[in-house]
Amino acid sequence: MHIRLIAMAALTLAAAAAHAQQAPKPEQLIKWRQSAYQTIAWNTARVKANVDGTYNKDDAARAATVIAALANSNLGVLFPAGTETGKGWRDTTVKANLFTDGPGVGAAAAAFTKEANELARVTQGGDVAAVKAQLAALQKTCKACHDDYRNN
User: 68 — phi, psi (to 5°)?
Assistant: First the structure.
């Protein structure tokens, strides 16, 4: 009886593990990437509000740290084949060439990560002019990627 119970438990665990390893559905991946980029946009707006208004070094640094964390989180895994079209929270706006231009996408991702890391570093110093300049550099990478790989 114990052997049968152990075997059933093992089969149940194996089935659960196999189910857990299944790739997420395209709709879920699209939702995750839309959420990640919305979080980046919100935190970029927080940094911008600081440099355009009353500067709060701690708030700007927290927002920049979130941007850098997401930039370093390998966002590319949220763009597998099969997610060129579809709906997450809304219809995806990604252009099909994102899935075929590996070198260009890699360069865009590297530029974004570099500028996001630099923004996180610069906000620690509290120099508003430096933060403003670095925010512009970061936003330039966002715009370049949107121009090349996003339907607006």
Answer: -65, -40
